[in-house]
Amino acid sequence: MEGTEKSQPAGQIEEELSRLFAAYREACPDPEPDPSFMPRLWQRIEAERSWGRELRRLTEVLVAAAAALSLFMGISLSRREAPVSFYTNTYIEVLAANYAPDAPLDAEALAAEQEYNR
Amino acid sequence: MLVDFELVKRAREGDHAAFTELVHAYRKRILGTIARLIGRPEDVEDVAQEVLLRLYFSLDQLRTEEVFEPWLYRLTVNAAYDYLRRQRRRGEARMADLSEQQVVLADAAAGSRVDQEEQRRRQLRETVQALLANVSEQDRILLVLKEIEGLSLKELEKIYRVNENALKVRLFRARQRVLKALAAAQAATARSRAG
Q1: For the segment A3-54, what is each residue's pLDDT rounded down to a tens digit?
Q2: What Rg, from alpha-carbon coordinates, does chain A have?
Q3: d(Cα B172, Cα B163) in Å, to the nearest integer?
Q4: What's the pLDDT tens digit per position in B4-34?
Q5: What whole-number distance in Å separates Cα of residue B6 and Cα of residue B15?
């Protein structure tokens, strides 16, 4: 195979390929379109357009539903009463109040200390 | 240009009659280009319809009327490329077609009235398609546009939006691969004749 390939001059194969391409061009002329070509094309265009319209309609419905839901949630959240707060002070404030130097000592601890001193 | 810019402009603005006129002007050329790109006459109309469908829905994206033809070629190339890729993926489909062709050839051999000229054309189409199967789908399309459709490098540059030198290199490599395949096929034929 190698030998045969080498025996064929490169220029000759080039020419052969060009000849083949030219013959192929002639063997594949521009075909005449089928009479149903245009009606089929318009059918496909219409099908795509109606699908597009359907998709747009669905998108609009979804957007409207999302907007309505957002509005409803916004209104319901704004109308909701503020939560009852048990803790008005922050944790730090509570700690500071418990360990303040002038805070009264626990009565039981005071009694225990007095007992010990006696 | 097969039509004037005014018609393209009208079609771009949504004028259905203008679009129909545009299709009438270009459909034969599109069908021919696709036929030579894909090499399967039975699928040519479907691919052409895909091109025109894409054209219809993308015409409004066309920047200017002057670039209409390269744009249309690009749509054609893309649709042919998608088709060829699908075909490559469906390897088994080709096998089915092959058996169908074999049946046709057997019928011809059995003496049915298959036109000899048509048979010669089919054989030629198959030979060129087999040679082009040695390069990638992109290179095959590029090679067909240049060597068979006869487009100039300048035209290809507009279609592909690629530098002319890059196209030359790509074309050269693709042609070399096809030449190599042709040399191998010729060698095989010579061997079988000798044997």
Answers
A1: 444 456 778 899 999 999 999 998 888 989 999 999 999 999 999 988 888 8
A2: 46
A3: 15
A4: 899 999 999 989 999 999 999 999 999 999 9
A5: 11
How do the domains of chain B map onto residue ranges? Answer: 1-88, 134-195
**B57 in contact with chain A, both atoms CB, cutoff 8 A:** yes
Length of chain B: 195
Cβ neighbours of A27 in B, within 8 Å: 120-121, 124-125
Q: Is the torsion defined by CA of B126, B128, B134, B137 positive or negative?
A: negative
- B36, B187, B190 member nearest A25 (Cβ): B36
- What CA–CA distance (Å, rounded) separates B3 from A62? 43
**Residue A114 structure tokens:** 């007095």
Question: What type of residue is B177?
Answer: R
**ipTM at complex level:** 0.80
CATH topology (fold) of B1-88: Rna Polymerase Sigma Factor; Chain: A (1.10.1740)
Q: Is A93 helix (H, G, I), strand (E, B) or coil?
A: helix
Residues of chain B with C-beta less than 8 angstroms from the C-beta of A20: 124, 127-128, 131, 182
Distance (Å) from the alpha carbon of A11 to chain B's nearest alpha carbon: 10
pTM above 0.90, yes or no: no
Architecture of domain B134-195 in this structure: Orthogonal Bundle (1.10)
| Minimal C-alpha gap between A59 and chain B (Å) | 19
How far apart are the CA of A29 and the nearest CA of chain B, in angstroms?
6
